[in-house]
Design a protein that fits this description.
Blueprint: H1 4-17, E1 41-43, H2 53-57, E2 63-69, E3 75-83, H3 92-96, E4 102-104, E5 119-121, H4 122-128
Antiparallel strand pairs: 1-4, 2-3, 3-5
Bound molecules: iron/sulfur cluster (2 copies).
């Protein structure tokens, strides 16, 4: 029938016109972020022992972990870097951690003009409480 496609399209338009608004007023209003969202990373320094399992589980080799052993042969983490530019946010590293030391946060504003901002030292971040090398807002 001539004009059937147009009528179908208009039906969708009218349905949405009188329906609930779905536009997010971002950045004035923060959108709802699911608790299971894969955003930035948070490392629990009390739990992480630098075993490197997360690094081995990463398909893109985005994590570099260094560790040392103390006088009691107990391993502790000395460096933890993630290259966000290579990260797929697949979550394999978080799932693989045997000590539940790594988790995702709901931080999603990770863009930057500087390439070096995408290499994130999680040890430094935990100490200084800031994201990558960017200054806090
Ligand atoms: S985050 Fe977990 S898997 Fe990765 S080095 Fe620390 S303890 Fe090991
Ligand atoms: S989320 Fe996936 S790609 Fe990103 S660091 Fe973890 S394992 Fe690697």
């Amino acid at each position: 029938m001539y004009g059937y496609g147009l009528l179908k399209g208009l039906r969708v338009t009218l349905g949405n016109f009188f329906g609930r608004a779905v536009t997010e007023q971002y950045p004035e209003r923060r959108p709802f972020i699911s608790p299971r969202f894969h955003g930035f990373f948070q490392l629990d320094l009390k739990k992480c022992n630098g075993c490197g399992v997360c690094s081995l589980s990463c398909p893109n080799g985005a994590i570099q972990v260094t560790s040392e052993r103390d006088e009691n042969k107990k391993r502790f983490v000395t460096g933890y870097k993630i290259s966000l530019g290579y990260c797929l946010f697949c979550g394999l590293c978080v799932e693989a951690c045997p000590r539940d030391a790594l988790r995702f946060t709901q931080e999603f504003e990770l863009s930057s003009y500087r390439r070096e901002d995408f290499v994130c030292d999680l040890l430094e971040i935990e100490k200084r409480e800031k994201i990558c090398s960017r200054e806090p807002a």
